[in-house]
Write a structure and sequence with these properties.
There is one protein chain. About 10% of the residues have low confidence. A hairpin with a 2-residue loop joins strand 9 and strand 10. Helix content is about 35%, strand content about 20%. The protein starts with a helix and ends with a helix. By secondary structure, the protein is an alpha+beta fold.
Length: about 425
Protein backbone atom coordinates (compact mmCIF):
# COMPACT_ATOMS: atom_id res chain seq x y z
CA UNK A 1 0.00 0.00 0.00
CA UNK A 2 1.38 3.42 -0.96
CA UNK A 3 1.09 6.61 1.06
CA UNK A 4 -1.06 9.56 0.06
CA UNK A 5 1.94 11.73 -0.79
CA UNK A 6 3.35 9.11 -3.18
CA UNK A 7 -0.08 8.74 -4.82
CA UNK A 8 -0.21 12.49 -5.50
CA UNK A 9 3.28 12.31 -7.05
CA UNK A 10 2.26 9.38 -9.32
CA UNK A 11 -0.82 11.21 -10.56
CA UNK A 12 1.21 14.36 -11.13
CA UNK A 13 3.79 12.48 -13.25
CA UNK A 14 0.96 10.90 -15.22
CA UNK A 15 -0.55 14.33 -15.95
CA UNK A 16 2.88 15.48 -17.18
CA UNK A 17 2.72 12.74 -19.83
CA UNK A 18 5.09 10.14 -18.42
CA UNK A 19 4.28 6.56 -19.32
CA UNK A 20 3.37 3.94 -16.78
CA UNK A 21 6.75 2.23 -17.30
CA UNK A 22 8.61 5.51 -16.76
CA UNK A 23 6.66 6.24 -13.60
CA UNK A 24 7.33 2.70 -12.36
CA UNK A 25 11.08 3.09 -12.94
CA UNK A 26 11.14 6.48 -11.17
CA UNK A 27 9.16 5.32 -8.13
CA UNK A 28 10.46 1.74 -7.95
CA UNK A 29 6.91 0.39 -8.06
CA UNK A 30 5.50 -2.41 -10.20
CA UNK A 31 3.80 -1.14 -13.40
CA UNK A 32 0.60 -3.00 -12.44
CA UNK A 33 0.52 -1.05 -9.15
CA UNK A 34 1.05 2.25 -10.97
CA UNK A 35 -1.76 1.44 -13.42
CA UNK A 36 -4.14 0.49 -10.57
CA UNK A 37 -3.66 3.78 -8.69
CA UNK A 38 -3.90 5.88 -11.86
CA UNK A 39 -7.24 4.22 -12.70
CA UNK A 40 -8.46 4.71 -9.11
CA UNK A 41 -7.57 8.40 -9.02
CA UNK A 42 -7.05 10.57 -5.95
CA UNK A 43 -8.72 8.60 -3.17
CA UNK A 44 -7.15 8.68 0.31
CA UNK A 45 -5.73 5.27 1.15
CA UNK A 46 -7.69 3.34 3.77
CA UNK A 47 -5.56 2.09 6.66
CA UNK A 48 -6.49 -0.73 8.96
CA UNK A 49 -6.40 -0.45 12.74
CA UNK A 50 -3.03 -0.03 14.33
CA UNK A 51 -1.62 -3.35 15.38
CA UNK A 52 -0.08 -3.72 18.78
CA UNK A 53 3.26 -5.46 18.54
CA UNK A 54 3.99 -8.65 20.38
CA UNK A 55 3.94 -8.00 24.12
CA UNK A 56 7.30 -9.68 24.84
CA UNK A 57 8.08 -9.00 28.50
CA UNK A 58 4.58 -7.65 28.90
CA UNK A 59 2.87 -10.90 27.85
CA UNK A 60 2.51 -12.39 31.37
CA UNK A 61 0.76 -9.22 32.54
CA UNK A 62 -1.72 -8.68 29.71
CA UNK A 63 -4.56 -10.51 31.48
CA UNK A 64 -3.88 -8.58 34.69
CA UNK A 65 -4.02 -5.23 32.86
CA UNK A 66 -7.18 -6.25 31.01
CA UNK A 67 -8.84 -7.28 34.27
CA UNK A 68 -7.84 -4.05 36.01
CA UNK A 69 -9.16 -1.93 33.14
CA UNK A 70 -12.36 -3.94 33.12
CA UNK A 71 -12.92 -3.18 36.80
CA UNK A 72 -11.55 0.39 36.72
CA UNK A 73 -11.62 1.75 33.14
CA UNK A 74 -10.01 5.07 34.11
CA UNK A 75 -6.78 3.65 35.55
CA UNK A 76 -3.78 5.36 33.94
CA UNK A 77 -0.94 3.59 32.16
CA UNK A 78 1.56 4.96 34.70
CA UNK A 79 -0.50 3.53 37.58
CA UNK A 80 -0.68 0.13 35.86
CA UNK A 81 3.06 0.25 35.15
CA UNK A 82 3.77 0.64 38.88
CA UNK A 83 1.44 -2.25 39.72
CA UNK A 84 2.97 -4.72 37.24
CA UNK A 85 6.50 -3.70 38.22
CA UNK A 86 5.59 -4.72 41.76
CA UNK A 87 4.68 -8.09 40.22
CA UNK A 88 7.98 -8.52 38.40
CA UNK A 89 7.63 -6.63 35.10
CA UNK A 90 11.05 -5.42 33.95
CA UNK A 91 10.16 -3.79 30.64
CA UNK A 92 9.68 -0.21 29.51
CA UNK A 93 6.70 2.14 29.79
CA UNK A 94 5.95 2.46 26.05
CA UNK A 95 4.62 -1.11 25.56
CA UNK A 96 2.34 -0.64 28.56
CA UNK A 97 1.05 2.64 27.16
CA UNK A 98 0.35 1.08 23.76
CA UNK A 99 -1.38 -1.92 25.30
CA UNK A 100 -3.59 0.29 27.48
CA UNK A 101 -4.47 2.42 24.44
CA UNK A 102 -5.44 -0.73 22.53
CA UNK A 103 -7.55 -2.10 25.38
CA UNK A 104 -9.09 1.29 26.13
CA UNK A 105 -9.01 3.39 22.93
CA UNK A 106 -9.50 7.13 23.02
CA UNK A 107 -12.93 8.44 22.11
CA UNK A 108 -11.87 10.69 19.23
CA UNK A 109 -9.62 13.73 19.12
CA UNK A 110 -9.65 16.21 22.00
CA UNK A 111 -10.14 19.98 21.51
CA UNK A 112 -7.13 22.23 21.77
CA UNK A 113 -6.65 24.16 25.02
CA UNK A 114 -4.84 27.40 25.80
CA UNK A 115 -2.52 27.02 28.77
CA UNK A 116 -1.83 29.88 31.17
CA UNK A 117 1.37 29.64 33.19
CA UNK A 118 1.86 31.72 36.34
CA UNK A 119 5.06 33.07 37.90
CA UNK A 120 6.36 31.35 41.05
CA UNK A 121 4.50 32.23 44.23
CA UNK A 122 1.72 34.10 42.44
CA UNK A 123 -1.27 31.76 42.35
CA UNK A 124 -2.81 28.65 43.87
CA UNK A 125 -6.10 27.03 42.93
CA UNK A 126 -8.53 25.51 45.45
CA UNK A 127 -11.55 23.27 45.08
CA UNK A 128 -13.50 20.33 46.51
CA UNK A 129 -14.28 17.09 44.66
CA UNK A 130 -16.91 14.52 45.60
CA UNK A 131 -15.89 10.90 46.22
CA UNK A 132 -17.89 7.84 47.30
CA UNK A 133 -16.03 5.32 49.46
CA UNK A 134 -16.81 2.05 51.24
CA UNK A 135 -14.63 1.83 54.35
CA UNK A 136 -13.64 -1.62 55.59
CA UNK A 137 -14.62 -0.56 59.13
CA UNK A 138 -18.16 0.12 57.89
CA UNK A 139 -19.02 -3.01 55.85
CA UNK A 140 -22.13 -2.90 53.70
CA UNK A 141 -22.38 0.89 53.51
CA UNK A 142 -20.94 3.70 51.44
CA UNK A 143 -20.08 7.21 52.49
CA UNK A 144 -19.86 10.48 50.55
CA UNK A 145 -16.64 12.32 51.33
CA UNK A 146 -14.89 15.35 49.85
CA UNK A 147 -11.34 15.91 48.65
CA UNK A 148 -9.93 19.37 49.37
CA UNK A 149 -7.04 20.24 47.09
CA UNK A 150 -4.74 23.25 46.81
CA UNK A 151 -2.40 23.26 43.80
CA UNK A 152 0.38 25.80 43.29
CA UNK A 153 0.04 27.14 39.76
CA UNK A 154 3.74 27.39 38.95
CA UNK A 155 5.22 24.17 40.34
CA UNK A 156 1.97 22.09 40.33
CA UNK A 157 2.72 21.00 43.92
CA UNK A 158 -0.41 19.38 45.39
CA UNK A 159 -1.72 19.59 48.95
CA UNK A 160 -4.79 17.39 49.39
CA UNK A 161 -6.86 15.99 52.24
CA UNK A 162 -10.10 14.02 52.40
CA UNK A 163 -12.75 15.53 54.69
CA UNK A 164 -16.32 14.68 55.67
CA UNK A 165 -17.85 18.07 54.84
CA UNK A 166 -17.27 21.04 52.56
CA UNK A 167 -18.67 23.60 54.99
CA UNK A 168 -17.07 26.92 55.90
CA UNK A 169 -15.21 25.71 58.97
CA UNK A 170 -13.71 22.81 57.01
CA UNK A 171 -12.70 25.16 54.20
CA UNK A 172 -10.91 27.48 56.64
CA UNK A 173 -9.15 24.61 58.46
CA UNK A 174 -7.98 23.10 55.17
CA UNK A 175 -6.52 26.44 54.09
CA UNK A 176 -4.62 26.71 57.36
CA UNK A 177 -3.29 23.15 57.00
CA UNK A 178 -2.29 23.76 53.37
CA UNK A 179 -0.40 26.97 54.18
CA UNK A 180 1.44 25.18 56.96
CA UNK A 181 2.33 22.29 54.65
CA UNK A 182 3.76 24.48 51.86
CA UNK A 183 5.42 26.84 54.31
CA UNK A 184 3.99 30.04 52.88
CA UNK A 185 1.10 31.81 51.16
CA UNK A 186 0.56 32.57 47.45
CA UNK A 187 -0.37 36.08 46.35
CA UNK A 188 -3.80 34.99 45.07
CA UNK A 189 -6.03 31.94 45.28
CA UNK A 190 -8.49 31.04 42.53
CA UNK A 191 -11.91 29.56 43.44
CA UNK A 192 -14.95 28.44 41.55
CA UNK A 193 -18.29 29.73 42.80
CA UNK A 194 -18.58 27.40 45.78
CA UNK A 195 -21.05 28.77 48.32
CA UNK A 196 -18.50 28.74 51.11
CA UNK A 197 -16.29 31.13 49.10
CA UNK A 198 -18.67 33.24 46.98
CA UNK A 199 -22.07 34.35 48.30
CA UNK A 200 -23.20 36.17 45.13
CA UNK A 201 -22.81 39.38 43.12
CA UNK A 202 -23.91 42.96 43.75
CA UNK A 203 -26.04 45.04 41.37
CA UNK A 204 -22.94 46.00 39.37
CA UNK A 205 -21.77 42.41 38.93
CA UNK A 206 -18.98 42.57 41.52
CA UNK A 207 -18.19 39.35 43.40
CA UNK A 208 -19.35 39.14 47.04
CA UNK A 209 -17.07 36.84 49.02
CA UNK A 210 -17.87 35.12 52.29
CA UNK A 211 -16.86 37.41 55.15
CA UNK A 212 -15.00 34.67 56.99
CA UNK A 213 -13.01 33.82 53.85
CA UNK A 214 -12.14 37.52 53.49
CA UNK A 215 -11.00 37.56 57.12
CA UNK A 216 -8.81 34.52 56.43
CA UNK A 217 -7.42 36.21 53.30
CA UNK A 218 -6.66 39.39 55.22
CA UNK A 219 -4.91 37.45 58.00
CA UNK A 220 -2.72 35.44 55.61
CA UNK A 221 -2.31 38.20 53.04
CA UNK A 222 -3.71 36.59 49.89
CA UNK A 223 -6.27 37.84 47.38
CA UNK A 224 -9.30 35.59 46.73
CA UNK A 225 -10.28 35.46 43.07
CA UNK A 226 -13.37 33.76 41.66
CA UNK A 227 -13.30 32.27 38.17
CA UNK A 228 -16.01 33.26 35.70
CA UNK A 229 -19.29 31.30 35.68
CA UNK A 230 -19.29 28.18 33.51
CA UNK A 231 -15.54 28.49 33.00
CA UNK A 232 -14.29 25.52 35.03
CA UNK A 233 -11.26 25.17 32.74
CA UNK A 234 -9.99 28.46 34.20
CA UNK A 235 -9.13 26.27 37.20
CA UNK A 236 -7.60 23.49 35.14
CA UNK A 237 -4.53 23.17 37.35
CA UNK A 238 -6.71 21.95 40.23
CA UNK A 239 -9.42 20.23 38.15
CA UNK A 240 -6.95 17.95 36.36
CA UNK A 241 -5.30 16.76 39.61
CA UNK A 242 -8.73 15.63 40.86
CA UNK A 243 -8.95 13.24 37.93
CA UNK A 244 -5.30 12.28 38.44
CA UNK A 245 -5.89 11.52 42.14
CA UNK A 246 -9.04 9.56 41.37
CA UNK A 247 -7.43 7.42 38.66
CA UNK A 248 -3.87 7.03 39.92
CA UNK A 249 -4.53 6.83 43.67
CA UNK A 250 -8.16 6.23 44.65
CA UNK A 251 -9.38 3.55 42.24
CA UNK A 252 -8.58 -0.06 43.04
CA UNK A 253 -7.51 0.58 46.66
CA UNK A 254 -9.14 -0.27 49.95
CA UNK A 255 -9.27 1.90 53.09
CA UNK A 256 -10.12 0.98 56.67
CA UNK A 257 -11.39 4.42 57.64
CA UNK A 258 -10.83 8.13 57.01
CA UNK A 259 -7.54 8.17 58.90
CA UNK A 260 -6.20 5.29 56.81
CA UNK A 261 -7.42 6.98 53.61
CA UNK A 262 -5.58 10.22 54.41
CA UNK A 263 -2.49 8.32 55.51
CA UNK A 264 -2.34 6.49 52.18
CA UNK A 265 -3.03 9.75 50.32
CA UNK A 266 -0.17 11.53 52.10
CA UNK A 267 2.18 8.66 51.25
CA UNK A 268 1.10 8.72 47.59
CA UNK A 269 1.54 12.48 47.36
CA UNK A 270 5.04 12.24 48.82
CA UNK A 271 6.23 9.26 46.78
CA UNK A 272 4.36 9.61 43.48
CA UNK A 273 2.43 12.81 42.71
CA UNK A 274 4.81 15.44 44.02
CA UNK A 275 8.00 13.75 42.76
CA UNK A 276 6.81 12.97 39.21
CA UNK A 277 7.95 14.57 35.99
CA UNK A 278 5.02 16.83 35.12
CA UNK A 279 3.79 16.31 31.59
CA UNK A 280 3.07 20.00 30.93
CA UNK A 281 5.96 21.77 32.66
CA UNK A 282 8.54 18.99 31.95
CA UNK A 283 9.93 19.54 35.44
CA UNK A 284 10.07 17.37 38.54
CA UNK A 285 7.27 18.75 40.73
CA UNK A 286 9.29 18.65 43.97
CA UNK A 287 12.24 20.42 42.34
CA UNK A 288 9.98 23.11 40.89
CA UNK A 289 8.33 23.52 44.31
CA UNK A 290 11.73 23.93 45.99
CA UNK A 291 12.41 26.81 43.59
CA UNK A 292 8.92 28.30 44.08
CA UNK A 293 8.78 28.08 47.85
CA UNK A 294 11.07 31.11 48.55
CA UNK A 295 8.73 33.20 46.39
CA UNK A 296 5.72 32.50 48.64
CA UNK A 297 4.67 35.08 51.20
CA UNK A 298 5.72 34.39 54.78
CA UNK A 299 3.23 32.86 57.22
CA UNK A 300 1.73 35.32 59.75
CA UNK A 301 3.14 35.33 63.26
CA UNK A 302 -0.17 34.76 65.07
CA UNK A 303 -3.05 32.28 64.67
CA UNK A 304 -6.20 32.99 62.69
CA UNK A 305 -8.92 33.90 65.21
CA UNK A 306 -11.82 35.14 63.09
CA UNK A 307 -15.10 33.68 64.29
CA UNK A 308 -18.69 33.07 63.28
CA UNK A 309 -21.33 34.03 65.88
CA UNK A 310 -24.43 31.87 66.25
CA UNK A 311 -27.28 31.53 68.72
CA UNK A 312 -28.13 27.99 69.83
CA UNK A 313 -30.49 26.24 72.25
CA UNK A 314 -29.13 23.86 74.89
CA UNK A 315 -30.83 20.46 74.79
CA UNK A 316 -32.32 18.75 77.83
CA UNK A 317 -29.23 16.54 78.10
CA UNK A 318 -26.89 19.54 78.27
CA UNK A 319 -25.41 19.68 74.76
CA UNK A 320 -25.45 22.19 71.91
CA UNK A 321 -25.81 21.06 68.28
CA UNK A 322 -23.24 22.71 66.00
CA UNK A 323 -22.45 21.56 62.50
CA UNK A 324 -24.17 18.21 62.99
CA UNK A 325 -22.18 17.36 66.15
CA UNK A 326 -22.88 17.90 69.87
CA UNK A 327 -20.83 19.81 72.44
CA UNK A 328 -21.43 19.82 76.19
CA UNK A 329 -22.05 22.81 78.45
CA UNK A 330 -21.91 22.88 82.26
CA UNK A 331 -24.96 21.96 84.30
CA UNK A 332 -27.39 24.84 84.96
CA UNK A 333 -26.35 26.70 81.79
CA UNK A 334 -29.15 28.86 80.38
CA UNK A 335 -31.24 27.41 77.55
CA UNK A 336 -30.11 29.98 74.95
CA UNK A 337 -26.36 30.44 74.47
CA UNK A 338 -24.09 32.28 72.06
CA UNK A 339 -21.69 30.14 70.01
CA UNK A 340 -18.42 31.41 68.56
CA UNK A 341 -17.18 29.16 65.75
CA UNK A 342 -13.49 29.43 64.93
CA UNK A 343 -11.73 27.42 62.27
CA UNK A 344 -10.38 24.97 64.84
CA UNK A 345 -12.38 25.64 68.02
CA UNK A 346 -15.93 25.97 69.40
CA UNK A 347 -16.56 28.50 72.19
CA UNK A 348 -19.90 28.65 74.02
CA UNK A 349 -20.92 31.75 76.01
CA UNK A 350 -23.72 32.11 78.59
CA UNK A 351 -24.78 35.76 78.99
CA UNK A 352 -21.42 36.85 77.60
CA UNK A 353 -19.43 34.55 79.92
CA UNK A 354 -17.31 31.76 78.37
CA UNK A 355 -18.60 28.48 79.81
CA UNK A 356 -17.27 25.85 77.37
CA UNK A 357 -14.46 25.50 74.87
CA UNK A 358 -14.10 22.46 72.56
CA UNK A 359 -11.92 21.51 69.58
CA UNK A 360 -13.94 21.07 66.40
CA UNK A 361 -15.14 17.48 65.92
CA UNK A 362 -14.95 15.90 62.47
CA UNK A 363 -17.85 13.77 61.30
CA UNK A 364 -21.56 13.72 62.04
CA UNK A 365 -23.65 12.97 65.17
CA UNK A 366 -20.60 12.77 67.43
CA UNK A 367 -20.50 13.99 71.02
CA UNK A 368 -17.75 16.00 72.70
CA UNK A 369 -18.36 15.82 76.45
CA UNK A 370 -16.18 17.60 79.00
CA UNK A 371 -16.23 15.48 82.22
CA UNK A 372 -16.06 18.67 84.31
CA UNK A 373 -19.45 19.71 82.96
CA UNK A 374 -21.09 16.66 84.58
CA UNK A 375 -19.27 16.34 87.92
CA UNK A 376 -22.17 17.73 89.89
CA UNK A 377 -24.68 15.31 88.36
CA UNK A 378 -22.88 12.25 86.98
CA UNK A 379 -25.98 10.06 87.36
CA UNK A 380 -27.91 12.46 85.12
CA UNK A 381 -25.30 12.14 82.41
CA UNK A 382 -25.39 8.35 82.61
CA UNK A 383 -29.17 8.37 82.52
CA UNK A 384 -29.01 10.00 79.08
CA UNK A 385 -26.87 7.17 77.77
CA UNK A 386 -23.43 8.78 77.71
CA UNK A 387 -20.51 6.37 78.11
CA UNK A 388 -18.08 6.85 80.97
CA UNK A 389 -15.97 9.97 80.39
CA UNK A 390 -12.18 10.03 80.55
CA UNK A 391 -10.24 12.84 82.15
CA UNK A 392 -8.84 14.11 78.85
CA UNK A 393 -12.23 14.93 77.33
CA UNK A 394 -12.13 12.53 74.38
CA UNK A 395 -14.81 12.51 71.68
CA UNK A 396 -17.61 10.03 72.29
CA UNK A 397 -20.09 8.71 69.76
CA UNK A 398 -23.82 8.37 70.19
CA UNK A 399 -25.09 5.54 72.39
CA UNK A 400 -25.05 2.26 70.53
CA UNK A 401 -22.21 3.23 68.18
CA UNK A 402 -19.64 1.48 70.35
CA UNK A 403 -20.08 -1.33 72.88
CA UNK A 404 -17.22 -1.64 75.37
CA UNK A 405 -15.81 -5.14 75.80
CA UNK A 406 -15.05 -6.41 79.34
CA UNK A 407 -13.43 -9.64 80.55
CA UNK A 408 -15.75 -12.43 81.67
CA UNK A 409 -14.00 -12.46 85.04
CA UNK A 410 -15.54 -9.06 85.77
CA UNK A 411 -19.07 -10.38 85.35
CA UNK A 412 -18.20 -13.45 87.45
CA UNK A 413 -16.96 -11.19 90.26
CA UNK A 414 -20.17 -9.10 90.09
CA UNK A 415 -22.27 -12.28 90.25
CA UNK A 416 -20.31 -13.61 93.26
CA UNK A 417 -20.73 -10.30 95.06
CA UNK A 418 -24.48 -10.16 94.44
CA UNK A 419 -24.82 -13.79 95.61
CA UNK A 420 -22.90 -12.99 98.81
CA UNK A 421 -25.13 -9.95 99.46
CA UNK A 422 -28.23 -12.10 98.93
CA UNK A 423 -26.97 -14.74 101.35
CA UNK A 424 -26.22 -12.07 103.96
CA UNK A 425 -29.69 -10.57 103.63
CA UNK A 426 -31.34 -13.96 104.12
CA UNK A 427 -29.40 -14.78 107.32
Amino acid sequence: MIQLGELVMILGLHREGLSISAIARRTGRDPKTIRKYIERGLEPPVYGPRQVGRPGKLRPFVDFIRERLSSFPDLTATRLLREIRERGYGGAYSPVKRLVAALRPDNGPKPFEIRFETPPGLQAQVDFARFVVAFEDEPGSTRIIWLFSLVLGHSRFIFARFVLHQDLQTLLRCHMAAFGAIGGVPVEILYDRMKTAVTGEDSEGHIIYNRSLLALAQHYGFLPKACKPYRAKTKGKVERPFRYIREDFFLGRSFRNMEDLNRQLADWLGTVANVRLHGTTNRIVSEAFAAERPELQALPAGPFDALIKLERRVSHDGVVAIGGNYYSVPDRTRRIVEVHQLAHEIRILDSGRLVACHPVVEGRKQYRINPAHRQGNASRARSHGYPRQSEDGLTFLRPGDQVPSRPLALYQAIGDRLAAQGAGAGS
